[in-house]
Amino acid sequence: MLFSFLQPNIDRARNATHAHIRTMITLDTAAWQNGVRMAIISVAPILIGVLTAHLALSVMAFLGALGVAFADVGGEYQNRALSMFSATVFMTVTVLVATITGANPWLVTLLMFAWAFFGSMAGLYGHLAGKVGFSTIFVFILVMGQPASIGVAWMRMLAVIIGAAWSLAISLWLWPFRPFLPARQAVSGYYQAVSALLRKACHIELEQHWNEEVKQERARLQRAHDKAHQIVAGQRSQRSDAHPFHSLLLMLVLQADSLMEAVIALVEELAVARTQNYHQDEQSAFVMEECAALLEQLAYAIAGKKQGLRLETLEHSLYAIETQEYVLRASLPQLKKEYYTLANTRMLKIQPEHQHSLIHDWLSLRLVNTRNLANLLKRMSELTREARDLLTQSDGQEILQEMLQAEATSKGKFSWKALYAVVRERVSLFKDNLTLRSFTLRHALRLATISAVAVAIAKLLHIPDGSWIALNILFILRPDYGATREQTVQRILGTIIGAILGMLLITVLHINFLIFPVMIVMSFFCFAYQEKNNTLFILFFTTFIIIMLDLIMPGNGLVPFIRIATTLAGGSMGILAGYLFWPLWERERLPQQMGRTILANRAYIASVLAAFIADSDKKAALEAVRRASKDAHVQNVNAAAAFQRLLNEQRASENEIERFHILVTYNQRICDNATALAAHISTRPEHDKFHQLERFSQQMKWMLLDVEEAARTGQRIGVNSPFKGMLRDVLASLQYLLATYPANIAEQQEGKGEMARRAYSMCE
């Protein structure tokens, strides 16, 4: 009983821990599919090698299949095929060179430097080229540790080609049968991410607005947004003869963009309601759960799953949301009556002025917030109905006919001149990055140098399986020190646990036919967690490799210990290289990132206010808001990611961490408030242009300019600086807006109160 007051905090911590563990180990559909696919790709070559007594060549086939799988960029089939086929070509050449030169320590060290340097520099040309470069380096490191004659080299090349073809076939076998599968999955994932964010936001506590769990969900939502736009919008723009289904998916992506902004605005309004305690949490959570369920149904329908769009259930959820909207709107007349009665009595000074003012402000906030919640719920139901209509009108083909007729039908022709221009541009980009100011060049030199040193040490000292040192460096080393340190810890932890598990399994599994089921299980979980949890990926991958090597060299009990030793050596060398060779400290880069974030938020706020002020060309103003919104959301996600990397740096002081945490948090709040404000542009009265906001817009601009400069330079804004004066002017403008709001009782004037309230929130 003495510590009973601690019980709520203990329960909250326990629940948070359980939720974190569930989130960490839970597998979604994409993870299950990747696990099954990679289990088939990786285990089949080993099984064939055991059956045919050609384990050495089967390992090479496994290596080719694995390297091609690492080069898979995901998304559109054409890009996946291009990356995997390119990796096959480069890996085949790499196997030939590495096999022949592996016996010469000095030559292979020089080649290691060249392969690591140019493979890393390939990242200049995008994600696809970077993946191919990584796979090429990966294969070179493993093969150069097993030198052989030219005859064996040719056989290895053939085995790698067979393994790569096997990986290509398994990865792309659905292409002719389901050509739209990647695009459908991307759009479905986008809707699922919007639904997940809304569901997580249902449980935000009053004092934990946008807590860490919800922030992680927002980051996943931004990635889903980027993936959907990259696959669907990019594919649509590249094909003049696109199928109508592509146009349907594009319209669904644009619809999801509007839903995402409506969700953010809804969460902001509910947060305001919770601070005033005039809406029940259960009621708010119920409405948000219904909205999330609707979006989840749409996601299933887009993906073509069995539990897809059930119109009866969807209509029931829409009815529940619209009922809540009706309840909110039904409360408006009484709130208005109370509000204007109080406004009139205020002039007569019937009550004490201070008490009267507080009640007046509370009622004004409640009135505006209730109207906003009703409008947002109406917008959510309308957007959901529109998305449903797109899915239920014969795949949307009728509504897309006019759009398709306007497309050009001619295809571009091959041009040597165009090809020459592209090659020249690529060469110019490479030359421009041949300077130590280039982050890509620094990382390439760092990786090439430390990898070459690791290979030289392993060859000269004849370390058993010494190539694994360089392999660990390849997986650990990152452009910034914080990420390198995090990768090192995860890899060492995963390797040690995986090696122990591998030893136990080798000891227990005396019967050979039990080995392959265990390998299938290890391979499945390894690649199921590849994108979700790096520590678990390394753990299961290490266990799989140890079991596979025991098949090749049975009875060699030193393999797990060698694996642990080489991981420790590679991790130490990677950390040392990241710290000594042109270290990229996030604490030095983050101020510039925060400057870009504040700049993007400033442009976003300016575009939203301009849309309210604009006298004409509303369409252009809304397009400017859309572009500014996209940039602001991207920059805020980048700032949050940069701050997470800062936490892994030992040089970061507590003061720096606290300062940047405040900057990241409040910039995200500013962006969210601007999004919530933008949601009301469409309901703005046409005859009221809000000209009184022009001065406020200019003052906000100058204030954020000062904050941006302070963030970039690290200087604090002084107490006597112009910032305080401008802040007083802004607050005076907002008080004027709030004071003039009740002067006109007409319904359309409520927008002024919302502008004042939302702008006041941003200013604070």
Care to describe what's here?
- Mean pLDDT is 77; it is low at 236-241, 346-360, 394-412 and 741-756.
- The chain contains 28 helices and no strands.
- Helix content is 78%, strand content 0%.
- The longest helix has 40 residues, at 353-392.
- It has three domains: 25-176 and 439-580, no CATH class; 181-400; 586-763.
- Helix 18 packs across helix 22.
- It is mainly alpha-helical and 764 residues long.
- It is globular and about 95 Å long.
Could you name the key traits of this structure?
globular, 764 residues, 3 domains, mainly alpha
The average pLDDT is 77
**Uncertain residue segments:** 236-241, 346-360, 394-412, 741-756
Proportion of residues in β-strands:
under 5%
Query: Using only CA atoms, what is the Rg?
Result: 30 Å
Largest sheet: none
How many independent structural domains? Answer: 3
Global shape: globular
Order of helices and strands: HHHHHHHHHHHHHHHHHHHHHHHHHHHH
- N- to C-terminal separation? 42 Å
Helix content: over 70%
Q: Total number of helical segments?
A: 28
Helix and strand content put the structural class at: mainly alpha
* Beta strands, count: 0
